[in-house]
Amino acid sequence: MSTTTLSAYLAQNQAANPALTTLLEAIAAVSQDISAAVHKGALGGVLGSAETENVQGETQKKLDIIANDMLLEALARTGVVAGMASEELDDCSPVPGQADKPYLVLFDPLDGSSNIDVNVSIGTIFSVLNNPGTGEITNASFLQNGRKQVAAGYVVYGPQTSLVLTLGQGVCAFTLDREAGQYVMTTESMQVPADTKEFAINMSNQRHWYPPVQQYIAELLAGKTGVREKDFNMRWIASMVADVHRVLTRGGIFMYPKDLRDPNKPGKLRLMYEANPMSFLIEQAGGQSYDAATRIMDIEPTDLHQRCAVMLGSANEVERVARYHAG
Ligand code: AHG
Ligand code: MN
Ligand code: MN
């Protein structure tokens, strides 16, 4: 059993970069507070709707706002963050007087909101960028493609609370030891197998999909008797964090394709604080991540809250469905 704590891991790997260590330690610490709030559930009065709307027109849950406020406060205090952007904020939040600090952080404070009230795994997703250093921090400061990420990760609040992190040299998973109040490394190098028999997609949207996705999923559903000549199994948790955690743990393909419902919404998931950090993790673990025929981290962002299609996970499956799109 490993005894490498997250703090020891950061000290080893980031000795030359104390500012990034400070930032990641702050995320780890605040995620323990979010985890404690999630754990209390109804007893802590954190369930249910806040009856407010975010910039995407989604009704916010109490925990969306609680987690968002906790992250904003904790990161502002680090002294190394110049500004933040979040799913729950219309515009970025520059840290007053800190425009010269080295990092910008984007986050989805609480992912899987529809699962909060039903005691199903939820999470926090984060992406760290360099401050471009152009003076004032504005939304434009954050519009950097996914390849520019310095670090990315998520925390999944499930049967265990786990923090999964990449600094661009592989992917490590840490499990929260509640008694000790620290994260301990439990997987040193997560690897997504190239092949899989498991897929994740919201099948209720089937009638809205474009032909490449229709074809791909029909082939999976045909199983042994179809062109794929093997049976596939389906899982859909509806918390991206939990679905991606399964893919990172045992392989699979996760898809939220763009569909015909609303031409203004090219997919449901958001590029900057959902798709990019997850793509960084998946590629660092040997998997692939595409929007349709384009690798997600190659997309040049134009808006803080822009959406994109997501197809990520086991390389051979993701590359196959990307080929269907390219063709
Ligand atoms: P969020 O709770 O941050 O708005 O994200 C929810 C996302 C994602 O976590 C999940 O994969 C997807 O929405 C679920 O969508 P459906 O409700 O369409 O299944
Ligand atoms: Mn989300
Ligand atoms: Mn969210």
Structure, briefly:
This protein is 29% helix and 23% strand. It has helices spanning 6-13, 18-40, 62-76, 211-222, 240-250, 271-284, 315-326; strands at 49-53, 59-61, 81-86, 93-94, 103-111, 122-130, 151-157, 161-166, 171-177, 182-187, 198-200, 233-234, 253-256, 288-290, 310-313.
Could you explain how this protein is built, in words?
This protein has helices spanning 6-13, 18-40, 62-76, 211-222, 240-250, 271-284, 315-326; strands spanning 49-53, 59-61, 81-86, 93-94, 103-111, 122-130, 151-157, 161-166, 171-177, 182-187, 198-200, 233-234, 253-256, 288-290, 310-313. By secondary structure, it is of the alpha+beta class. It has two domains: 6-187, Fructose-1,6-Bisphosphatase, subunit A, domain 1 (Fructose-1,6-Bisphosphatase, Chain A, domain 1), CATH 3.30.540.10; 198-326, 3-Layer(aba) Sandwich (D-Maltodextrin-Binding Protein, domain 2). The chain has an eight-stranded mixed sheet with strand order 4-3-5-6-7-8-9-10, with helices on both faces. It has a five-stranded mixed sheet with strand order 12-11-13-15-14, sandwiched between helices.
Helix-strand blueprint:
Elements: H1 6-13, H2 18-40, E1 49-53, E2 59-61, H3 62-76, E3 81-86, E4 93-94, E5 103-111, E6 122-130, E7 151-157, E8 161-166, E9 171-177, E10 182-187, E11 198-200, H4 211-222, E12 233-234, H5 240-250, E13 253-256, H6 271-284, E14 288-290, E15 310-313, H7 315-326
Parallel strand pairs: 3-5, 11-12, 11-13
Antiparallel strand pairs: 1-2, 3-4, 5-6, 6-7, 7-8, 8-9, 9-10, 13-15, 14-15
Helix pairs in contact: 1-2, 2-3, 4-7, 5-6
The chain binds 2,5-anhydro-1,6-di-O-phosphono-D-glucitol and manganese (II) ion (MN) (2 copies).
The site of 2,5-anhydro-1,6-di-O-phosphono-D-glucitol (AHG) has 14 residues, from strand 5 and helix 5.
